[in-house]
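Handout, section B. The chain below has 204 residues.
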Amino acid sequence: MKAVFRLLALVVSFAAGVAHGADTASIDQMLGKPDAPVTIIEYASLTCPHCAHFAETVIPKIKTDWVDTGKAKFLYRDFPTAPAELSVGASMIAQCAGPERYFGVLDLLFQTQEKWATAQSPLDEMKHVLRIAGMTPDQVDSCLTRQDLADAIQARAEDAAKKYGVDATPSLVINGKLFAGAQTYDEVDKELIKAYAAATAKKK
């Protein structure tokens, strides 16, 4: 545990604040059509067990029923939780995987969360897991030296708290409206139906 914290300390500086001009837009990754009438933003943490369960049970259904059908676009945004250093580090690694592999690496890290998050050396365990995604240990180490990326992740999380009032994970923002906590798919689906009806009515 000490080894991973020493490494992540090089790139994470919560107490020092965010560097001015952190480019948060450049780290947004999206699924779906840009002009879809419904925008879904998920705020979650890779070290949050509730988020891992949500990623396994709810998000796939959202993607199938709403994103794949063109009715919604989906954005995932990190909202780091304890242990913050590990959460931010995992988020950075997903970003460094690149746009084509981003969501696949997110899914992989959520699926294996219990394994690496509770390991004696979380970073070593993540490196082992990430080989499946084609990331080498050297690539992971290089990624974790990117202060710009750490700053952008932190700035985006702070923006979520200020703009939407996000204070828990997982949380969804559907067309600008916050729905906090791990809801069931049926609960989310009802809100998506309302948002879709409202958005499409405006276009008529």
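Note. The beta strands are 29-31, 38-44, 72-78, 171-174, 177-180. Compare this with the example in section A.
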